[in-house]
Amino acid sequence: MLKRLRNIVAPPAAEQRAALLAGKHITYTLKRSSKRRSIGLRIDDRGLTVSVPLRASEKWLHSVLQDKARWVVEKLDGWEMLKPEEVLWQNGEQIDFLGELLTLRVVSGLFATPAHLRGRALWVFVADGSEAAHIEEAVSHWYRQEAKRLFAERVAQYSSLLEVMPRTIKISSAKTQWGCCTVRGTVHLNIQLIKLPLRLVDYVVVHELAHLREMNHSAAFWDVVGSVCPAYVQLRKELKAVAIR
Predict the structure, then answer these.
(1) Phi-psi region at 92: left, alpha or beta (left = phi > 0; alpha = psi -120 to 50)
(2) DSSP assignment, residue 111?
(3) What are the tens digits of pLDDT across the range 110-142?
């Protein structure tokens, strides 16, 4: 009996699947876990992920997917509309910076030097201007330097207004959060904020700093946010419509 049990092959922890939902062919990631007792569906920029108990039956899985089919399709279509156009890392391409568009001006030379802004153009100096990866790397480095400077400036301004002092500010590359604040006072701000209008950057900064006074999302927390950011309801709604790239 024990020998037979050892020979039973457990289903893979994760696998790629497809299903016909509400008339559309949908691909999704199926994840199995011994800790789950129910089937859960999550939709984000990577698509649909279905988490199921380790031994969930195909019949149960099919039933849940069909029951949620219209919801799944609507949510996936919503994410598809939010997806930004793919950037072509080449001379003349446009990139986002603080809610505006900058034009890339790529210059090839013997050595790569830091990119810098001239008017509404970002001049990028690379050793091999034909290599998109080199251009992307130079722009990413410039984004990070600008984010460090801007975040420090905005945090200093709103820390004074809110009478708080974060322990440290860190730049994050999170895929699902614009920012977060730890109980130890570390504030994380997403590098992708540097592409958004300043009003949204300020909202995220205020939101995270407010957690240094209220580590929750209670009415008291929103009172703190509203004390220096009275338009936070509209800004919060605007930010939710933006996908983290």
Answers:
(1) left
(2) S
(3) 677 889 999 999 999 988 656 888 899 999 999
Contact assessment for residue 42 and residue 63, using Cβ atoms and an 8 Å cutoff: no
Q: What is the DSSP string of 187-232?
A: EEEEGGGGGS-HHHHHHHHHHHHHTTT-SS-SHHHHHHHHHH-TTH
Q: How far apart, in whole angstroms, are the C-alpha atoms of residue 242 and residue 221? A: 23
Each domain of the chain, given as residue ranges in start order, spans 2-82, 94-240
CATH of domain 94-240: 3.30.2010.10
Closest-CA residue to 238 (of 211, 203, 186): 203
Contact 177, 187 (CB under 8 A): no
**DSSP-based helix, strand, coil % in the chain, nearest 5:** 40, 30, 35
What pLDDT digit, counting tens, does each position of 25-82 carry?
999 999 999 999 999 999 887 889 999 999 999 999 999 999 999 999 998 887 776 5
Cα 28 to Cα 23, 39, 50, 190, 245, distances in angstroms: 15, 14, 7, 27, 20
Report d(CA 154, CA 163) in Å as an integer.
Answer: 14
Distances (CA, A) of 156 to 153, 162, 206, 227: 5, 10, 11, 16
| AA identity, residue 27 | T
- The larger pLDDT score, comparing residue 80 to residue 219, is at 219
